[in-house]
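**Sequence with structure:**
===
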Amino acid sequence: MLRMGKLTDYGIVLMSYLAQRTEMQHSAHALADAVQVPLPTVKKVLKALSQANLLTSERGAHGGYSLNSSPKKISVAEIITAIEGPIALTECVGTESHCEQENHCSIQTNWTRINNAVFHALDEVKLSDMLVPQVASESVSPIHFYPSTSAMALVKTKDGEING
């Protein structure tokens, strides 16, 4: 089973909360109270999101955290990557593969294709999409999980990662 870690889930919850309240800075304490996640966990997640340039952090009495860009520009894939690292479904599609079968594996290319499809699907889902209530989702345009062949020509892969 493919499953994100709890920290990634908390990261998406925190980013969604911040996306709904972009008019001000939010302290780690206020965020922990708002999303009901322990403060040390919130601080750890905020640090990872800040290091990935998804959040801006300002010190001081009126400081706090805020989104670094519009919720329409931040993808779920970026949030996952900020906390989990590069999206890699199998050992062989990651940048630091330790698979003993890699040198003679005949399906590695196919795993790369699958990994790219999953990455594209997650990259298509924006933070703003996460704010849409479930009942209203019928009015939201569907997410296109895989780009057309011409769009794929613009995307290059290197070591199982998307570049382009």
